Amino acid sequence: MLLSMTGYGEARGQNEAFDVQVEIRAVNNRFLKIAVRAPEPFNSFELELERLIRKTIRRGSLTVQIRVDRWEGQRGTVLNLDLLKSYIGQVRDLGQRLGLDVAAVSAMIGQALHLPGVAPEGDSIGERSVTNWSVLEPIVAQAVDRLQEMRREEGRRMAEELLALRGRIAFDLQFIRERAPQVIADYRARLQERIREVLTQNQVEWEAPELLKEVAVFADRCDISEELVRMESHLDQFRDVIETEIDSPGRKLEFLVQEMTRETNTIGSKASDRQIARHVVEIKANLERIRELIQNVE
Length: 298
Hints:
Elements: E1 7-14, E2 18-27, E3 32-37, H1 46-54, E4 60-70, H2 81-98, H3 102-110, H4 125-202, H5 208-221, H6 225-244, H7 249-270, H8 274-294
Parallel strand pairs: 3-4
Antiparallel strand pairs: 1-2, 2-4
């Protein structure tokens, strides 16, 4: 199944401290490129976000936008000011009784924030980080799932269009296959008619083997049977990749289109026939349409 490289996914979630919205926008790119835009402290999860996204997405340029609204009263750490004042007063009293200088007392006061009960329990940076990621991870995963759903739907439509274009190329190719033998027959008939005219006007003799040799040289020069076989093989592989490939089908389709373009150019240069030339032009036009479409296939 084909996947488009463009799409959009959005998800929301919340806990007792904040509301989180995650938006993921994807456009085409030859490789996987991820840009994260998030406020503190969520901007520190860039590596975790990239690992999570790479489990599902292989190609494309993704922008991950994280918006956070904190609930009122959760804007920062709330200190127990009464307890802090009590600790500072006790430290100063202790310093006076022990006869400590001002510098020593100030150093002891500086450690008061770390005393029990001043800051809420479990408010360390490490614990906050674990808590924030546990909230963010499932929201991002849900946004990725919704992005993939859109990419699958667009990929399905692209597959239908690509197969339709393949069918048009196969139709033109079949005409060329049927027309190719007639090109040689027409050339032989034209050559015979010209020889007949020359013989009539100038009374020049012409041996039949020489005619056959000339026709054989022309037939060898405009023989496109190998190119037709390779084109049909490429078309079969093209269909198989669209219908069954799951590992980076976009790159394989790009290679097949490149090869089919090369074979088509050879057919056009070798087949000296106006009708074949018209169908070669049609094949090239459809290959160009395919090339534009697969630029957006993962």
